[in-house]
Design a protein that fits this description.
homotetramer; mainly alpha; two-stranded antiparallel ribbon; 4 strands; 4% strand
């Protein structure tokens, strides 16, 4: 174990969050600080791009705080997230002390163009969405990686029959490929939703109460303010909102919903893998980690467990974002806005970790075909009892079919029972009882799912 | 009060839910029962449309259960939601006894085509989405009604200055029109999301474990099953899913998210109206209801209160839907699916009530311009202190500006203080202090919001 | 299926809530209406008991509305929950129209003593807690029933070894009795919490803003009002609060927390039963229901599934109650209070259903000892690998122990491997590998758990 | 701003959490690490106290890792939370690498007594509850501080009349003291619940699956294991549980419920202060912070805003703990346990911050009696309309009373209207209209609330 001790002011370095460790550098407080600085610099650049701010003032600001390298700029200037956090309490947000600190670090001429006409919320909302956007790109990459792997998995096991389970019990056969195809569709849909949400995340610039009054006072014309707002969005790489959205918080809740949906999608995979990895089931095993030297019989589905820990937490975080949106009273609410910040960050963090683990889980997933086959046979043929009913009912009637399968349920040999039926004389009993011959459209559904995932025509959701 | 007493088996007739009373007939258990019957009849019709089921069997089923009138069909046949609810416990869902009851009510030849190849989940998922779709149409209508009214409201009060409040305190001026425009954008976005979600709600048809095996056994070819699935979607008016989605629950969570977003949007309106209706503020008043004969000074914002009661509940209902999605293990999960049903219904119900109240609230909203003007003056000019800083700082420097506004903050006359500054000699002080002259782009933002709402180009969210 | 159709105004007769069907008559809207009437009659009786109200007025009220039979009184007078629900919208709560309706049904002299000095919240809070108290008695009875059964179960299977599972994998042996003992402790603790909460549920009586001003105006002395408040509590059977608690909502959240805890406790049982009932595991089976005639191999853990559906919903309902408490602004809040009513009712309802199902589940639970034994042997002895390490490490060192168990993990015979170790010559290998001999303090822990549950000294939680 | 930059591995130093900054050092990852080490050392000491472990081994462990100074021990040994966090991913929890690292740092003889017979969950559960206990002591201290201040506040303003508001509207008079008394009761009750929960937090020691099998293998007798478990509890200062509670999670949920209740209680205060600080109301002001140099008219209720941000988040965190409890399947669940850790920490952290802010808020709270008086008069006497009805109805009948107050509601002078009534000739109209004379039992309720808080007989909740 290496030696650097964290400072006493680090509340969270991941010790209690194994699902996100190694995946969360995009959402650290340092990353947020860099984004706050980026937003301030972007505003100065936007003024510069209009010709409103002198080029040398903008240059000085960029040079000082490091456009394209705001994190380095912070370090160079000793702008520390810890110090800002402490200074944020009095005013309730970190932008107030940040602006003061930034202004101290440049000439008065440049300082005048820092935060000009803006309000704390403009900078904080913009910075959080910069962080969210950058992190969402990574979540999307993990989801896409998982998608590619799931497409292969679905193809590879397209026709491998396996027991389908409803309400914990063997029902009828399915295929491993169809199960993977379900995961694929869930991940794909969630990825598409997240991409859509990510691309529409809007910059925020409206001034003290969202009227842009100070911006107008500085710039003199509505057109110039409109230009500044567009330039600011361009500089931040965020979408341009036609109107400030200070207390209309759907950009945050839509992002939150998409993140929760992404975690749901990988949570479903993890639920299945954890279940199918059970000692008695053993159809699947995570290929990496999870071993126990003291108990070598254990093959803990470690990634599944971690993903599930995220999936159990995410929905309630999403709910908090919605509550904050519904309670966004006035032109800046008395608590609801502040409740969003750590909640959104934690939700992004969970999505980063859960999606990364999901990709790795799928990549290393091991299918134990012996176990699959053994399990399929566990009900001694009754897994196709539905098929038997379809085939035999026209021959012997529903009542006698029920008698046959009930007898088999009590332990009699199903094939022999059917073989003893005169009416069933012509049937190929082995074929009738073969689970592989009763997987319905599983293959076709795999193909359809893979087609969707390859960008083929998506009928899902089309009216 | 009229006399019909509800039966002892009605748990909920709305006594504890004033926000939804009068708006929830689309989501009663009777409506759900009718939709269950509709789904079963639709399946028979779908078989009929393929030529698989004999026309007279389908006719018999339609005649018995009333296509386009399933509710009447239920009543005619004594299919009661209460009885089904009781019979649903053993198997855990109401479709099992429903199918039995329906089969008893037709000839054996027709009975064979009821529920053929389907599983309970096919019928229940489809029925809940039929109910959801029909209800969502009404929610959308209420939102659209509110939107039209808000567009007018925003236009009517486009230039009426009013105090903007941040963190409960007067900040700078805004306009009543801009506040309404914010509401408009929120409602419009939520309505668009809901419409999108509503139109993509997919029918469910996959059989016992989503493989369509029994359907294939009955129909003989993949193509025929594909045709049946498409016909079933057509009959139900739902979207066709290329693959069953038994345990990929995003259709439910996306709908849930959209419903919560709709409630958030009207919740924000209600939060503002409730606040601005406070006795001391009095800028807004609901025009209907809320009076108290004993305390005539009260003008309770009754609709706002009710809408807020929904907005505080909805996010946690949405969270439950996400949890159910993340825990949808196997081919039918052991509890998560069942948790969805009442949760989704309650969420739709809240959306119905909250949206209807919101439309009524906006329709009857009264603006008291005397109160608006009085409040604007409450800080004796300091509401434009930001503007004073912008204007005076170049003339007297930031330190002296702070002194001036601080003195005004302690009670000195702001106009006189500025008037006594030699550097400010040329200023039109009355104009400088006029809140109406410091509303920034409020008017332009109103116009942009109204343009969006009229279907003009929507830059919001465009990359 | 019997024929009475529910009226179109019944939103919920249980069709979507199989977990609560048959257990929810204590929380119907009719039960709430009866409790509202009971609260009003109790207030009149309290006035009567002080000698403030004339005996004949109180008699008239009691006779009219049926003390000890408020439900009958409602029916006799045509007081219908449906009608009240409709009339409640304008004012936002059903007490306003109820008082009007009750006053119309008695003489003016009696009417004057109805609702005298009270506010709607007094009656509604009191009524909801009457309903809650009565329902909680039933929940407690179910929990106590389950407790008795679990005590027997734990004793019966005190020494039956079974595989313990951690992170889905066989770890070491435990006993079926210890598992039951864990359930027992959870249920017992939850029952105790619920009883404590239930017994402290306080009546509400404070007048328009909780000052009792109108009560004082009517009665003339602080002592008389204090007496009235005490008498009111006595009449309702609720606890007496020394001060009204209109916007201090811990009576509601503490009850909510206890209900959620009760559902958690039975949820844990259901999670275990559902898992251990899996086709491949088969150690447990619910004895009642859950069968499928079409798929006789299925033994659906139907009660477990239903209980789990409640357990996934309850925590978010509890969260809503807490939110309402935190947002209980002013002397009556603008939405938070209204959000409580249906939420609390639904939470009680879930507890009623989940606890009843749990008692039945435990009562009929079947243990398949063959499956238990088979599963214990599934890792071919490695389930005691921890023990092997404890015993062998002193003999051959940790490294060689790891080699032995690793070899066994790859398939070698564990007994033979150990038998071939010279250092292990004196060991009784069969005894070493016997899972029944490595259950630690399981028996003692069962005894301790049963002792607790029998009211013995409870060290749990003692400092 | 000072210069130390946090390491890139610190996800959270408080930048997005102003409500907790400065109050969270008890719950940092370093504090958790120290508690993990403390738990391990406590186990060695417990073995030592039984005479099972040699004294020198225990001494070596204590000396190495610093009993009573585990944090220093970690630093001395380079045990870093960051490194452990990274090493925790593979196995899913930080105890596994911690034990390895600790064993490397002592002699083999001592290493044998580290973690002996324990499982990761024993150490992690115990450590989290050590952290929780220590933090809860601080939360309690803040609550008690607030309680003392609120008692004074309630006494100081016992008889100061103020407008009571229901549904945002002036209803009848109350007193500032009674409002403070309500806050006092809420805080007091929450503090009592938290103390009760805190004192019962149990140590965890059960081994791999809660049977204590390895402990028994090491110690040889049930009595010795029982002694060890008791000694371990004593060493950690936690309560002794008679049985391990690995998957019976009520110790966590009860703590969580108490923390949420504490946050609710201060959230209610914050809601009232934020509302009563509104520019138009101005009855209260926070005495510290919240100023804006640019907008001196603003007196932001900064602490209230921050407390509210916590109150909006806490309930959903509590819900996650309950979900984890309900889903605690098997002898260690597949995700639910892991979901608890960060959730519980964040909830404690919010309680620390919210309670500290609440104490400070109350300490510095300013009452503006001018504003209180002005607001009381805002409805020109109608605030006592309820009283007028009580007094005048016997004289002129309810209908004419309604006419009088309605006329006043339209603007007529209420005193003059009453003065013109012949039937009211004898009334002292000024006294009748005096809000101070219509505060009911407010004073008595203040006294009762203060008595409770002073430890007097608590009738609340007594049956």
């Amino acid at each position: 174990m290496p030696s650097p001790t964290p400072p006493p002011d680090a509340i969270d370095v991941g010790l209690l969050s194994p699902v996100t460790v190694g995946h969360d550098d995009a959402v650290t407080d340092d990353a947020v600080l860099a984004a706050l600085v980026t937003a301030e610099v972007a505003l100065a650049r936007a003024y510069g791009s209009l010709g409103a701010a002198p080029a040398d003032a903008v240059d000085e600001i960029e040079t000082a705080f490091g456009w394209e390298g705001a994190a380095r700029g912070c370090r160079a200037h000793g702008l520390s997230a810890t110090a800002l956090a402490g200074a944020a309490v009095a005013g309730g947000n970190p932008v107030i002390p940040l602006v003061g600190a930034m202004r101290e670090r440049v000439s008065p001429g440049a300082a005048a163009w820092l935060h000009r006409g803006a309000t704390s919320q403009d900078i904080l909302d913009t910075a959080l969405l910069i962080v969210a956007r950058d992190a969402a790109v990574r979540v999307s990459a993990s989801l896409r990686h998982a998608e590619v792997l799931l497409r292969s998995l679905a193809r590879a096991w397209r026709d491998e029959p396996a027991a389908a389970r409803t309400l914990t019990q063997h029902a009828v056969p399915t295929t491993i490929g169809l199960r993977a195809a379900g995961w694929l569709r869930g991940v794909r849909r969630a990825g598409a939703r997240l991409d859509e949400s990510r691309r529409s995340l809007p910059a925020q610039l409206g001034g003290a109460a969202g009227t842009g009054a100070a911006l107008l006072a500085h710039l003199g014309s509505v057109e110039a303010v409109t230009g500044l707002r567009a330039a600011f969005a361009t500089e931040t790489g965020l979408a341009a909102a036609s109107v400030p959205w200070h207390t209309e918080r759907w950009p945050v809740t839509e992002l939150g919903d998409a993140l929760v949906q992404a975690i749901d999608a990988v949570g479903k995979i993890a639920a299945d893998v954890a279940t199918l990895s059970r000692t008695e089931i053993g159809e699947l095993a995570e290929g990496a980690g999870g071993g126990s030297s003291a108990m070598p019989q254990k093959r803990n589905p470690a990634s599944s467990v971690l993903i599930r820990s995220a999936a159990l937490r995410a929905p309630q975080l999403g709910a908090t974002l919605h509550l904050a949106a519904a309670l966004a009273v006035d032109e800046r609410p008395d608590g609801a806005w502040h409740a969003e910040w750590p909640t959104l960050r934690e939700l992004i963090r969970l999505a980063l970790g859960a999606a990364a683990h999901a990709a790795r889980l799928v990549e290393t997933l091991h299918v134990d075909t012996d176990a699959v086959t053994r399990n399929l046979a566990a009900t001694r043929g009754l897994i196709v009892s539905e098929r038997i009913a379809v085939v035999l009912t026209p021959l012997i009637g529903a009542d006698r079919v029920r008698e046959v399968v009930a007898a088999a349920g009590r332990g009699d040999d199903l094939g022999a029972l059917i073989g003893s039926l005169p009416e069933a004389a012509g049937l190929d009993i082995d074929a009738l009882l073969d689970p592989a011959a009763y997987t319905g459209l599983a293959g076709a559904f795999v193909d359809a799912s893979r087609l969707l995932a390859e960008g083929g025509e998506d009928q899902e959701g089309a009216p």
